[in-house]
């Protein structure tokens, strides 16, 4: 511990640590730095608070936690040998397997104890190990909170308040000499239960039914209910103190008796070693990379399709935030995926900053300006940005469709999907996959067992009692396959690079595995076009406007219809443009039916003009207007002729356009100047939006610079709080630790002398808010009612008004 005498308190134990050890404590428990403690005493006090101890216990692995639980039921303080015995047992039931387990525990215990010491949960040397009081209270047994070890209270705790007469009856029934001293009676009963030979003799006389009762209680819970007239086996146990009363209807098996029955073990199954992650299949690494690359390209294509789907303004935002169930279903249908998968893709695009709400009065989701920059990147870089955003995101799409703690439904893009543990779990799952040989797919159950061993107290979800960390781990495995992080269950090479070298290296490894974009299609005589692979973006955009996607897969099939051709004409293309486009990009001759379709739609396109009168229809061909007026389907449009070539309508221009198109016409909208309005998809964008920030899980881990500054500040503050000072500066009767008190004249003379000699002094200081503190300073200059000095407490040069210094004292030699 660095001292010749054992520490008496946690503060003394921390004070004896070196700077590196203190930095390790602050790194393991960053909540202790908010704010930076003023001295070691404040650090020890904060490290022992309930909230901080609970957070520290939640970050322990299973064996470190089992070690802390054993210390909680051990005497305080406990020697190292006692702790080891509670974990390995007393050797009375040893076999070959038990010997192996004992050796593993003995080998792992120093590391577990070192972890507890580093995190200031245990202090003291090996002869006097002490568990922090708050941790002991959290892990100690009670009727309301049974111990994780399944042990009950000690004999002394269970008999507290018991009448001396009842104690005499127990001693007599157990064959112990009578004593009128309750303390001696408790000591004698404890000695009986901890003596293996005498305890064995007592149990040899027990009825078989009584031993069966003990078997049910020995591994916990140790409490049982009894009737006012208990059965003979229970009465036999109660009379001899093997069951002690907790209340009129509850009894408990005392800890010493339970430890005898357990052969001295605090845990039924100590777990000193983490369970191994086993494999279910070993695949060819090249096949894994190829499968992952194909899925990565599909992931990029799906996000592109989602952006295109919401290009002109997506679904409305719910009043409470998020996407309605109906809109999610529509999105899933359009993407040809299930609703849970649609929620994943929507959340992925949102987390990457590609989608957001537009913030308008009629609030809707739409692509962000960043989506246009993302679409211009090569496919491998687009994948790397999606994978990086997924790794860091705290939003968890697997929760969509469930309920929160108040029973409200959780919606996609809603406000309650953040789970701060998600990034850590994702990275840990991928790290475990990275430890396996290349091409190895893990067994999910063994992976979950490993995660539960590493964080046994973390992540219990309210309501269903399930382990949230395990659910996130399973979602991670599924989402990794969807995103191309893994292929056929095994980690891909480009993902290993992403975890170790960053997105640029991962994109470089992925690029050769992705298909090259094509600049051509194959036109068919049945008004379809086949894209035998991914298309270059300009070709894909225009073809997506000119034709409808009929099927997707390794090859995409597009179908040309009158509506799709009209859509291209509405976007400003002419028939000549479309003919030239198809002739340029088709490896097969342009079929005659397709040319006829384009010419026919173009000939009729724009003959009718829709404008706002509120709306009107105009056409140079009077017979066409006559046909429209005579058509019964036009009744809802409330048309009337106001000129030979003009019809006025009671419907708005948009409804008039849709109505005439449903009747088989191809009208075009026109502006107030009579020009044809060109409508282009994708004109709607949100204002610039940043990607949602992950919700941190507690305080961030400080870097080395901050840790070093914090340790120096704590050391300096501790020096100021504990430094010895000359007694002549204190007034008679001043309590130890009080601020020094001197007159203004004495204060001025002392700091001037210290500035001339370059020595340090101890001062009391009251700031502008009235907060008093003590500091160790080395004055540099004294003038104008101020003293400029190097403050060892703050580790910086500061200026103090002399009138705020309560007093000054020279440091003792």
Descriptive key words:
5-stranded mixed beta sheet, alpha+beta, 813 residues, 5-stranded antiparallel beta sheet, elongated
Layout of secondary structure:
Blueprint (H helix, E strand, L loop, with lengths): L9 H6 L3 H10 L11 H8 L2 H9 L3 H12 L6 H9 L7 H23 L3 E2 L6 E2 L1 H7 L15 H4 L5 H10 L8 H13 L1 H9 L3 H10 L5 E3 L6 H8 L4 E2 L4 E3 L2 H7 L17 E4 L2 H25 L15 H11 L3 H13 L3 E3 L7 E3 L1 H7 L3 H14 L29 H14 L4 E3 L1 H11 L13 H16 L2 E2 L2 E2 L1 H8 L2 H8 L11 E2 L4 E4 L5 H10 L1 E4 L4 E4 L2 H9 L4 H11 L6 H13 L4 E3 L3 E4 L3 H9 L8 E5 L2 E4 L3 H10 L5 E2 L34 H19 L21 H14 L3 E6 L5 E12 L2 E6 L4 E6 L3 E6 L3
Parallel strand pairs: 16-20
Antiparallel strand pairs: 1-2, 3-5, 4-5, 6-9, 7-8, 10-11, 12-13, 13-15, 14-15, 16-17, 17-19, 18-19, 21-22, 21-25, 22-23, 23-24
Helix pairs in contact: 2-32, 5-7, 5-8, 10-11, 13-14, 16-18, 16-20, 17-18, 20-25, 21-23, 22-23, 24-25, 27-29
Short description:
The protein has 813 residues and is of the alpha+beta class. The longest helix is centred in the middle third of the chain and has 25 residues, at 285-309.
Q: Uncertain segments of ≥5 residues (pLDDT<50)? A: 460-465, 728-734
- Order of the strands making up the biggest sheet: 18-19-17-16-20
Structural class: alpha+beta
Shape: elongated
Overall pLDDT, averaged?
Answer: 86
């Amino acid at each position: 511990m660095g001292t010749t005498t054992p520490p008496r308190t946690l503060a003394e134990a921390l004070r004896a640590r070196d700077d590196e050890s203190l930095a390790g404590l602050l790194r393991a428990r960053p909540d202790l730095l908010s704010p930076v403690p003023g001295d070691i005493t404040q650090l020890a006090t904060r490290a022992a608070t309930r909230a901080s101890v609970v957070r520290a216990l939640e970050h322990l692995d299973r064996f470190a936690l089992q070690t802390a639980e054993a210390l909680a039921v051990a005497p305080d303080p406990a020697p190292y040998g006692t702790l080891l015995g509670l974990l390995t047992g007393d050797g009375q039931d040893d076999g070959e397997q038990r010997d192996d387990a004992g050796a593993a525990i003995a080998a792992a215990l120093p590391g577990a104890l070192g972890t507890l010491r580093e995190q200031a949960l245990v202090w003291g040397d090996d002869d006097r190990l002490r568990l922090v009081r708050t941790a002991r209270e959290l892990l100690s047994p009670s009727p309301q909170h049974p111990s994780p070890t399944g042990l009950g209270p000690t004999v002394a705790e269970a008999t507290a308040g018991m009448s001396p007469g009842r104690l005499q009856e127990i001693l007599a029934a157990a064959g112990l000499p009578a004593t009128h001293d309750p303390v001696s009676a408790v000591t004698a009963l404890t000695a009986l239960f901890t003596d293996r030979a005498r305890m064995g003799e007592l149990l040899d006389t027990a009825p078989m039914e009584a031993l069966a009762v003990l078997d049910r209680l020995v591994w916990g819970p140790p409490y049982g209910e009894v009737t006012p007239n208990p059965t003979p086996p229970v009465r036999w146990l109660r009379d001899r103190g093997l069951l002690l009363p907790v209340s009129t209807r509850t009894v408990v098996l005392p800890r010493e008796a339970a430890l005898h029955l357990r052969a001295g073990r605090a845990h039924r199954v100590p777990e000193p070693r983490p369970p191994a992650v086993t494999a279910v299949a070993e695949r060819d690494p090249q096949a894994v990379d190829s499968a992952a690359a194909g899925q990565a390209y599909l992931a990029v294509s799906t996000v592109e399709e989602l952006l295109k789907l919401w290009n002109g303004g997506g679904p409305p935002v719910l009043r409470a935030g998020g996407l309605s169930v109906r809109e999610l279903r529509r999105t899933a249908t359009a993407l040809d995926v299930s609703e849970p998968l649609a929620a994943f893709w929507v959340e992925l695009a949102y987390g990457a900053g590609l989608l957001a709400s537009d913030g308008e009065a009629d609030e809707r989701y739409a692509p962000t300006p960043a989506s246009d920059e993302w679409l211009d990147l090569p496919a491998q870089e687009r994948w790397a940005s999606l994978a990086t955003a997924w790794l860091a995101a705290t939003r968890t799409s697997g929760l969509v469709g469930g309920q929160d703690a108040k029973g409200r439904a959780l919606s996609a893009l809603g406000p309650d999907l953040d789970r701060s543990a998600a990034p850590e779990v994702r990275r840990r799952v991928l790290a475990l996959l990275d430890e396996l040989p290349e091409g190895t797919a893990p067994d999910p159950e063994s992976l979950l067992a490993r995660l539960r061993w590493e964080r046994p107290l973390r992540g219990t979800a309210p309501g269903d009692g399930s382990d949230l960390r395990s659910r996130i781990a399973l979602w991670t495995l599924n989402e990794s396959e969807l995103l191309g992080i893994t292929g056929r269950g095994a980690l891909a090479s480009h993902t290993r690079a992403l975890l170790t070298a960053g997105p640029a290296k991962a994109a470089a490894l992925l690029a050769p595995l992705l298909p090259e974009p094509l600049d051509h299609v194959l036109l068919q005589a049945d008004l379809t076009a086949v894209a035998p692979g991914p298309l270059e973006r300009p070709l894909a955009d225009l073809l997506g406007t000119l034709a409808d996607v009929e099927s997707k897969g390794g090859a995409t099939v597009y179908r040309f219809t009158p509506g799709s051709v009209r859509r291209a004409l509405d976007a400003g293309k002419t028939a000549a443009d479309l003919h030239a486009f198809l002739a340029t990009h088709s490896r097969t001759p342009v079929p005659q039916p397709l040319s006829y379709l384009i010419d026919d739609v173009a000939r009729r396109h724009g003959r009718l003009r829709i404008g706002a009168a509120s709306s009107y229809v105009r056409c140079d061909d009077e017979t066409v207007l006559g046909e429209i007026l005579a058509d019964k389907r036009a009744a809802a449009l409330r048309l009337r002729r106001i000129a030979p070539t003009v019809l006025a309508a009671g419907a708005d221009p948009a409804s008039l356009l849709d109505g005439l198109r449903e009747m088989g016409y191809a009208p075009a909208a026109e502006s107030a100047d009579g020009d044809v309005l060109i409508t282009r998809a994708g004109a709607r964008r949100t204002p610039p939006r940043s990607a949602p920030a992950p919700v941190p899980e507690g305080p961030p881990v400080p870097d080395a610079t901050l840790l070093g500054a914090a340790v120096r500040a704590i050391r300096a503050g501790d020096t100021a709080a504990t430094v010895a000072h000359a007694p002549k500066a204190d007034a008679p009767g001043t309590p130890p630790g009080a601020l020094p008190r001197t007159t203004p004249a004495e204060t001025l003379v002392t700091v001037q002398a210290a500035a001339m000699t370059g020595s340090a002094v101890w001062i009391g200081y009251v700031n502008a808010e009235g907060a008093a503190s003590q500091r160790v300073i080395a004055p540099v200059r004294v003038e104008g009612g101020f003293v400029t000095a190097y403050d060892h407490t703050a580790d910086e040069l500061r200026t103090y008004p002399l009138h705020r210094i309560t007093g000054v004292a020279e440091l003792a030699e």
